[in-house]
Design brief:
The protein is an alpha+beta fold. The protein has seven helices and eight strands. It has one domain: Aminopeptidase, CATH 3.40.630.30. The protein has an eight-stranded mixed beta sheet with strand order 1-2-3-4-5-6-8-7, sandwiched between helices. Strand 4 and strand 5 form a beta hairpin. About 25% of the residues are buried.
Length: about 220
Amino acid sequence: MTTGEVVMMLERPVQDWPVTLVSRDPSMPAVALRALRRGDKSEWDRVRSANLHYVGQWEPTAPDGVGRRVTFRQYVKSLDREARAGRIVPFLIEADGRIAGQMHLFGIVHGSLLSGAAGYWVAEEHAGHGIATRALAMLCDYAFGPLGLHRVEVNVRPENGPSLRVVEHLRFRDEGVRERYLHINGGWRDHRTFALTSDDLQGGQVLDRWARARQP
């Protein structure tokens, strides 16, 4: 590079969407990550209503207390639009064909950063069965593979034991505490940041590494 030369890095703002990822293990429920559809409304409403307290205690809220209300159809349309623009990857989690939660990769940045952050919720009835761990591993493999990202981070509240176990199982690196990082349940909450990079895998996959670690 000579003096005064400018290097322009191309962005990749568009991705193929919708995408479906499937993982099957004889010892566990089959897990699929797919796009949310308008036809999911009844089941999605039922699962969300049944888990309002269980999930709500960890979910971001509007600092001014006023959230924008949208219809389910508008919500699905917005997710698809953002996904096609390459800004998020908004997956629904299915376990044995039933809605178990959602997992999004958001804040996707290309250029010199090649990074995204994962956020998710899983219904209480599906908790403790490795579904969130498996889904996050699948999401990371998609991010490091087809999306070509270098880094995936997950931000977890220090008191959220189940999510801390998920990142521990997948051997995410603990990068410390972000103080008053997200507004949740009426206040600004500290989060611990965990991350994986493609270098950590040495050419392997997150899901395969986790599966091997579970073998007796």
